[in-house]
Amino acid sequence: MTTTSTNVAYISNQNEIDVNEHQMNDATTMKMKMMMMKNSTTINEQQPFDQDGFVGIELRLMRNLIILSFTSTMILGILQNLLTIDRYQYGQWTYIGFAIGFMFSALSVYYAQAFVQRFGPKRTLIISTVAIILFIFIHYFHNFILFQMAIILFTIFIGPFYAAQLEFISKFMSNLVHLTQTIKRYQEERYQRLLHQLLFCPSLIEYYQQQQQVPLEHRSYPSCSIRNVIFRTFRDNHLRLLLPMAFFIGFEQGFFMADYNKLYVSCALGLQAIGSIMLTRGFVHLGATLLVYEFIRHIQRPIVLLAGAICQLSVLAILYLWRPNDDIPLYYVITITYSLANAIMETLLLTNVLRTFCSDEWKYAFLTLYSLNNLGYAIAFAMSEFICLYIKLFTLILMLIIAIIPMQLCELRLLKFEKILGPAATLTNTNNDHNQKIIDNVEMIQFNNEQNVQRRY
C-alpha cells in the first residue's frame, strides 16, 4: 500500500514536472517567436524596399534622369545657337555683356547657398527657370537694353541654381541610402554625373515623390557662416591644385561657344549649322561622361586624364593649323573630339572632389569650382572681341599645361591613398582637428552601437 501510494505520488510529481517543462518550453517558444517578429520588423524598417522594389525605383529614376538630360541638352543647344545669332544682331557688345554677366555669376556663388536656404531648392529652381525663359523670349523684342538686362538676370541666378542642384544631389543620395543598407562608391559617382547633366532642368519630379516617403532633416546655416565655409575651401591644399583645371574648363568652353562658332562654324557653314554642331557636342558630352566611369574602373585615373589632355591638345593644334572650309564631316570630328576630352577632364575633376571631401564639404568645394568656371567664361567672352585668335589658342595650350600638372598630382595622390585605405575611403585634410573629428565620430558610432545592443537584450 505504501509502495503504491509512493508510485502514485511519484507519477503525479513527474506529471507536474512535465507540465511545467511544457509550459516553460511554450514560454521559450513564444519569446523566440516574439524576438523573431521584432527582428523581422527591425529588418523591414531598415529595408523599406526589397531588392526588386529597389531595382524598379532605380530604373525609373535612371529613365527620368535620361529624359531630363535630353531636355537640358536641347535647351543648352538653343541658348548657344541664340548666342551666336545675337553676336551678328547686336555686334561686339553681345560678348561684352556676357563677360559682365558671367562675372556676376562667379560672384553669385557666394550668396547662392544662403539664397537656397532662404527660399528652398524648389523655388530656386523655379526662379532660375523663369530667368532662362525670359532670356529666350527677350529675343523677340530685338531691344539691346532688354537683352543686356536679361543676360544679367540670367547669370545672377546661375550660382543659386548650382547650389540648388547640389542640394538635390545631396538629398537624392540620402534617399538612396534609405532605400538600401549600403551604397557603393561607383553608384554614388554615377548619380553625381547624371545629375550634373541637368544644368537647365526645372525640377526633379521623382525626387519629390521619394521625399514624401523618406522625411529628412534640412539643416540651415547663417549666410555669414556659409560664406566663411566657402572661403575656407580656398585654403585647402588639395582643392587649390584643382582650381586651375576648373578655370581652364570654363575658359575653354567659353572659347568654343564664342570663337569656334563665330570664326569657324558660322563663317564656313552658316548660322544654320551651329544648332546641329552644338547638339552633337551635348550628346557626345553626355555619352562620354557615362563611359568615363567604365574607363576608370579598369584603367587608372591618371592615365585617363593624360589621354584627355592629349585629345585636348590635338584639337587645339588642329584649330591652329586648319583653315575653315566647307568640309562638313571635319567639323563634327573636331566637335566630337573636343567633347570627349572635355567630358574626361570635367568628370575626373568632379569625381576627384567626391573622393576627396566628406559629404558635408563637397558641396562648398563644388561651389568654389563653379565660381572659377564662370570666371573662365567671363574672361573668354571678354577676350573674344579684342584678342587675336592665335594668341587665344596659345593661351589655351599654356593654360592646359599649367592646369594638367597639379591635377595629375592630385590624381596620383588619390591613387596612392586608395591603394592604402581602399577605394571607399575619403581623402580629407590631414590636420589634427580633422583627425580628431574623425576619431570622435567613430567613438560616437561605437557608443551608439553598444547602446542599441544593450536595449535589444
UniProtKB/TrEMBL annotation:
GO terms for molecular function: potassium channel regulator activity. The chain crosses the membrane at residues 65-83, 95-112, 124-141, 147-164, 241-258, 270-296, 303-322, 328-350, 389-409. Signal peptide: none annotated. InterPro entries: MFS_trans_sf (IPR036259), UNC-93_regulatory (IPR051951). It comes from the Eukaryota. Keywords: Membrane, Transmembrane, Transmembrane helix. GO terms for cellular component: plasma membrane; striated muscle dense body. GO terms for biological process: regulation of muscle contraction; regulation of potassium ion transport. Belongs to the unc-93 family. This is Uncharacterized protein. The lineage of its organism: Eukaryota, Metazoa, Ecdysozoa, Arthropoda, Chelicerata.
